[in-house]
Amino acid sequence: MRGLISLTSGSLFGLGLLISGMVDTNRVQGWLDIFGDWDPTLAFVLGGAILPMAVAWRIAERRRMPLKGDAFPVRTEQKITADLAVGSMIFGAGWGLAGLCPGPSFAAISFGGWQGILFVVSMAVGMLLTVPAKRLSFWSHRGA
Amino acid sequence: MIEQSYIYGAIGGLIIGLAGAIYLLGNGRIMGASGIIGGLLDGSGRDTARDRVLFIVGLIATPWLALILSGTSSSTNITSDPVVLIPAGLLVGLGARLANGCTSGHGVCGISRLSLRGIAATGCYLVAGGVSVLLFKHILGVI
Predict the structure, then answer these.
(1) Interval A93-110: pLDDT, tens
(2) Among A19, A46, A109, A128, which residue has the fewest nearby CB atoms (within 10 Å)?
(3) Contact criterion met (CB < 8 Å) for B137 and A33
(4) DSSP secondary structure code for residue B101 in this structure
(5) Which residues of A touch B143 (CB under 8 A)?
(6) Taking 80 as the threshold, does the pLDDT of residue A140 lie above it?
(7) What is residue A88's three-state secondary structure?
(8) CA closest to B143 among chain A residues
(9) Contact at 8 Å (CB) between A68 and B108?
(10) Shortest CA distance to B57 belongs to which of A73, A4, A94?
(11) Is B16 exposed, middle or buried (0-12, 13-18, 19+ CB in 10 A)?
(12) Is pLDDT at A80 greater than 70 in this prediction?
C-alpha cells in the first residue's frame, strides 16, 4: 500500500510538472529573468500547488497518524540556520544556471537525451558532496 | 489578458499539490524531491528505500507515458553545454541537501505549512536564482 501511494504520488508529481510547463527550462529561467522577458507562470504553479497542500496540512493536524505510517512529520525547530540560507543560495544559483531543480530534472529524463542524465548525475555528485561540505561549513559558527 | 500558460501552470500546480497531499496523508512524509533522492544516495533513507524508488519511477515514467499517449511533443529546452550542465547540477545537488530541501520540499510543502524555514529558504533561492540568470544571461552571456 505504501508503495502504491508512493508510485501514485510520484506519477502525479511528474504529470503536474509536465502540464504546468515546469519541465521547460526556458519557462523556469523566464520566471527568474526579472530584468529580461519576465514569465510569471511559475507563480501560478506554486500557488496552485500550495492550495491542496495547505488543506492536507490542516487534515494532518486533525488526524493522529497517516493512512500508512507511524506519524506525521514533526515541525523542526524553526531556526534559520546558516546551512539553510547558504544552501538555498547555492541551490538557487544552479537552478538559474540550468533552469532545472531536482523534481523536474528527473521528469526531464523521460524526454530522452543525454543532457538530462548528465544533469542528474552531476546533481547526485553534488548531493554526495554535502556530507564533507557540512563538515567544513566555514559559514557557520559551530564546530572548530 | 490571461495567458494560456498561466492556466496550464495553475492546473499543473494543483496536481503537484495533490501529489504532495497524497504523500503526506498516505505515507506521513514530506514530498521533497531532493530529500527523496538524496536519502537514497547517502543511505539516510534506507528504511524507506522502496517508497523512494517507486516515487522516482512514477516521476520519470508518467511524463514519458503521457507524452506518448497524447501524441504531443514538448521540449525541456535543456542546454547541450556540459560546461553549464555539470556545474549547475553540482550546485543544485549540494545546495538543496545542505538546505535540507528544494522547490518541492521548502517551496510547496513548507510554505503551505507556513514554515518559517521553508519561507526563508524559498526567499533565498528565488533571489539567488534571479541573480544567477542576471549574471549568466545578461552580464556574461553564457546561457
Answers:
(1) 999 999 999 999 999 999
(2) A128
(3) yes
(4) -
(5) 29, 97
(6) no
(7) helix
(8) A97
(9) no
(10) A4
(11) buried
(12) yes
Report the residue of A4, A8, A11 to disrupt the B interface, i.e. the one with the largest count of B CBs within 10 Å. A11
**What pLDDT band is residue A141 in, cutting at 50, 70 and 90?**
low
| Closest Cβ–Cβ partner in B15, B66, B85 for A98 | B85
B15 burial (CB, 10 Å; 0-12 / 13-18 / 19+) is: buried
pLDDT for A34-75, tens place per residue? 999 999 999 999 999 999 999 999 999 999 999 999 999 998
Question: Over 90: is that where the pLDDT of B54 sits?
Answer: yes
Compute the distance between CA of residue B25 and CA of residue A68 in angstroms, rounded to an integer: 8
- What 8-state DSSP symbol labels residue B53? H
**Is the Cβ pair B41, A128 closer than 8 Å?**
yes
